[in-house]
Amino acid sequence: MALYLLRRLGFIFLTLLLASIIIFSITQFLPGDVAQMVLGQFATEVAIENLREELGLNLPLHIQYLNWAAGFITGDWGDSLVSRMPVQPMVMQRLGNSAMLAGVAIMIYVPLGIALGVIAALKRDRYPDQAITAVSMAFVGLPEFVTGLLLIAIFAIGLGWLPANSSIDPGSNFVQAFPYLILPAITVSLTGLGYIARMTRSGTIDVLDTDYIRAAELKGLPAAQVLLRHVLRNALLPTVTVVAMGIGWLLGGLIVTETVFGYPGLGRLLVYGIQRRDLPLIQAGSMIVVAVYSLSNLAADIIYGLLNPRIRLGR
Amino acid sequence: MYNPAGSALEDGTAVLQPVLDVRNLTVTYRTDKGPLDIVRNVSLQVAPGEIYGLVGESGSGKTTLARAVVRYLAANGSLTADTLKLGDTDLLTLSRAEMRKVWGSRITMVHQDPGAAVNPSIPVGEQIAEVARVHLHLSPGEARKKALEMLGLVRMPDPESVARRYAHQLSGGMLQRVLIATAMATNPELMIMDEPTTALDVTTEAVILDLLNELMTDYNTAILYITHNLGVVARICSRIGVMYAGEIMEEGPVKKVFRSRLHPYTRGLLGSVPRVDASKKDVHLKAITGQIPRPEELPEGCIFSPRCELAEGDCLIARPPLVQADGDHYTACRRWQELLHLKEKEQHEGPVRGAYDSAKGPLVLEAREIKKHFRSSGGLSSLFSRESGPIKAVDDMSVRLRGGFTMGIVGESGCGKTTFARCLAGLEEATSGEIALEGVTLPYSVNRRKQSDLKKIQMVFQNPDASLNPQHQAGVSVARPLILLGGMNRSEVRSRVRELFRAVNLPEDYIYRLPHELSGGEKQRVAIARAFAADPILMLCDEPISALDVSVQASLINLLAELQEKNETAYLFISHDLAAVRHISDWIAVVYLGRLWEVGSADDVFVPPYHPYTEALLSAIPVPDPEVSQEQIRLRGSVPSAVNIPSGCRFHTRCPRKIGPICEEKEPPWQESGFHHKICCHIPLPRLKEMQGKGCFFNSSAEGEEC
Question: Which CATH code is given to the segment(s) A97-312?
């Protein structure tokens, strides 16, 4: 067990290493000069040269990379080129905000997606199944800015129940932030719902078709008991993996939703960094997103193993 | 319509009120082709304590009938019947909710594949206990106790620990016991068993059948036992119904039906089963030609007439009803009176050579000390697993085989038979040992073997669905080895493919068919044609007939024997069906835990002295003759894991003839017993022979047929 975990963590380290090299190289190829960008169009040659020296931009590339990587590991993620503030607290605060949004979204779309998926499977190929499939797939296909704006139009502008803008204060805690989280969370949920529902539907259909479910029915167990104890326990295993893997997406990939609602999440911070060519910010932010993806993947595997006696107990 | 079951009652031959009373049951499915009657006018009765065997090939409607009896049909199925009664309850009038109360309490079911019929993520004890809670209204604590009690009843070793385990931690035999325990927990009136032992090893099957026999003496439960295996019926059933294409063809007490066989279909089924006391030298198996008609293309007259040798004028015009032949024995054949006097003609083949001429053929295969050890995989499951070390699938096996001969390899599943064959074919790289073909040593991997050597070894696999490319026409599959290995040009290939199709008795237009347009037997014929296309000197047949119906098995066994005669090919024939192996093999090797324990000619291996493991395998064979009594040698437990192989003699943990600590400490020596007959055991052969007496099969009837 320990060996397996070590090996997986080793692989995650390798993934991060590879990702860091890619991220670092790409930021080097972005057009334009960083020092020029920082100091503006009218900066003198000398000032630019001084800044380049100060930022270490004149060193050979591999030295620059090693300096940056060493710093990242030791917790010194550098200062933002734009705000001249340390990058680390900035990124971590945004990560916290993203986690709050992700938490609320998961609480909405996972139970709902499972319920819809099970209903679709039970009414397979009949009207409720077709309706659920059509609607949930439509939302998967609709861009978040469409659903987001629609929700704002209805619930914020029309009914006035919820704020249209979610640009919360940087230091807000969960309770303060909660009203601002609902609309973006629903927007995200509508996109994620389809995947969960589809996965649950196909898992449930597979299980409904097994000999052991036929056997459970012919044991004369009440229908609800067959569904809850015999079907779902097996049918939800693949769904668990999808949920855990979705965490990476929720934490780092919600750029559109965050932009629509002005929510200060990690995704929007990254876009901001890219627009300003704020290299330390892009590098640190991207690394965190990669790390979150890798770890949630590992978590998915471990949870799947724990829930599945065939893997948990071995032969 | 004549009603056999009803008149049985009137005769007073069945005085007890039947548990299950089915009269004129018809099951109809709505399909794209319109309504189809899958089961037609079936009547049967099962008395308390009786085991009623329902036999027939796949597609005969056995399982549909069973589902209809419990009113558990697919949404597009419906049933009509004059009577469908369980005791005094008319099942036809019950609602779905009322049926649920019958299921699992008054009628219980045991399903075919125990591995699939047990929920993988609920401990097995709980799966028994839930039935006790729902139907017996026991408290959770009492239900748990009941589950343990039931596990004890089915002779489960260590019920407490088994109850906590999950399906994947138990062997097939243990799971089937769990299912029987579940089915017996409510002391039902009727238990329906659908091929309950088909997925199990012959040794495990024997243990389960013994258990059923024992349970039936204590309980009064009636059993409807569905199977395709006539040997199983002969061993445990008291009455038999032979089903064909949705109708019952013959019905009666097992002994009467097996003795007088009043329907040509019954005769065909029994004639196509290989016998343990005869080989290809003695008898030619009689296969039934053709296949079961599809429900939408039933013939006008007798539904069996297209495949019947006796069919004549009237047989083709009107469907004959089931008539009473002799007391409680019924048949649907018009000509049953003639059948009474028509003695089965046994075709004797010309002189086929047996193992004793073995010096004559050239040595084809010599495999020395083959080992194959697998590393356990490092996947997700290693996160939780405790076991480590290599899996010794094949651990020192040596085999010599001459051209024109067949060596049968037998043993329980998981003993390494298939891995051994795959090592020889190079599909699996052996860990060590030497594989020599015609005296030339071959590399382990198929990738490093020369084209000319690849040609010489061909393989036929168990499942033709998986071994034929579904996108390729049958002819293309057969042509591939000709082009790849034979280097022929187009017209040569075309004529050779035609020749091969003729050789495996397939019509020429089958060349253009896709696999899904062929039946299982036809697909296997294509696979055999493909194997012979390369003109091999060694054929590895890995359970080539196990997935097929008996009548089809017979024709394939005959085909393989014919092709061998013609081409002088050496066969390595792997099967768990000892009767089939006995029939086709000149030599037999008995494998257990990756090693050989007995090698000898087929005749020698089947008579004492034999290895205690061989003895157990032989005594487990279900012989399709109710008058043959067999010695009851049963193995405990299942094959140990190939990771932790027992010390000394690997078989000592299960050996019924273990003599003492020597078995646990020392590897047994090989003992010579006659013409190339070797047994690896600590017991001196004269003593072994004395213990084993006159062998596993003896006829209990007066004539005392020698086996």
Answer: 1.10.3720.10
Fill in the DSSP letter of residue B103. B
Which of B134, B179, B386 is closest, CB to CB, to A314? B386
Burial environment of residue B102 by CB neighbours within 10 A (0 to 12, 13 to 18, 19 or more)? buried
CB B64 within 8 A of CB B42: no
Distance between B645 CA and the closest CA of chain A, angstroms: 15
Which chain B residues touch A233 with a CB distance below 8 Å? Answer: 119, 121-122
Q: How many CB atoms lie within 10 A of CB A183?
A: 25
Report how far apart, in Å, the C-alpha atoms of B299 and of each of B70, B304, B316, B484, B549 are.
29, 8, 8, 44, 21
Answer whether B587's CB lies under 8 Å from B401's CB.
yes
For residue A214, the chain B residues in CB contact (below 8 A) are 72, 111, 117
Tokens coding A285: 């932010």
Interchain CB contact of A73 with B (< 8 Å): no
Q: How many alpha carbons lie under 13 Å from residue B125 in its C-beta half-sphere?
A: 20
> For the domain B357-375+386-470+520-590, what is the CATH code?
3.40.50.300
Two tokens at B103?
């299921």
- Please indicate whether residue A158 or residue B53 has the higher confidence score (pLDDT): B53
Q: In this structure, what are the phi and psi dihedrals at residue B279, rounded to the nearest 5 degrees?
A: -125, -175
Q: For B649, phi and psi rounded to 5 degrees?
A: -75, 120
Residues in chain B closer than 8 A to A223 (CB atoms): 100
- pTM (2 d.p.): 0.83
Candidates A212, A312, A313; nearest CB to B116: A212
Contact flag A215-B179 (C-beta cutoff 8 Å) = yes
Q: Taking a C-beta distance cutoff of 8 angstroms, is the pair A86, A79 a contact?
A: yes
Q: In this predicted structure, what is the pLDDT of residue B5?
A: 44
Q: Are residues B166 and A219, on separate chains, in Cβ contact within 8 Å? A: no
pLDDT of A22 strictly over 80: yes
Residue type at position A309 = P
Contact in structure between B227 and B195 (CB atoms under 8 Å): yes
For chain A, the average pLDDT equals 85
Nearest CA in chain A to B377: A4
pLDDT in tens, B181-224: 999 999 999 999 998 888 788 888 888 898 888 888 788 889 99
- What band does A215 get if pLDDT is binned at 50, 70 and 90? very high
Residue spans per domain, chain B: 115-185, 357-375+386-470+520-590, 607-699
Q: Do A301 and B380 touch (CB under 8 A)?
A: yes
Task: Dump pLDDT digits (tens) for A275-293.
Answer: 887 888 888 888 888 888 8
Give the helix/strand (H/E) hosting B698: strand B697-699
3-state DSSP helix/strand/coil percent for chain A, to nearest 5?
80, 0, 20
How far is residue B163's CA from residue B126's CA, in Å, rounded to a whole number?
7
- The mean per-residue pLDDT over the stretch B127-149 comes to 94
Identify the pLDDT of residue B613. Answer: 93
Q: Average pLDDT for residues B391-399, to the nearest whole number?
A: 89
**Residue A176, Cβ density class (10 Å: 0-12 exposed, 13-18 middle, ≥19 buried):** exposed
For residue B464, is the peptide bond before it cis, meaning its omega torsion is within 30 degrees of 0? no
Residue B1 has pLDDT above 50, yes or no: no
Of A210, A220, A314, which has the smallest distance from its Cβ to B104's Cβ?
A: A220
Q: Given CB atoms, is A214 within the 8 Å cutoff of chain B?
A: yes
B631 phi/psi in degrees, rounded to 5: -65, 145
pLDDT at position B347 over 80: no
At residue B699, the pLDDT reads 55
pLDDT reported for residue B15: 53
Q: Confirm if B370 and B422 have CB atoms less than 8 A apart.
A: no
Look at residue B573 and tell me whether its pLDDT is greater than 90: yes
pLDDT of residue B588: 93
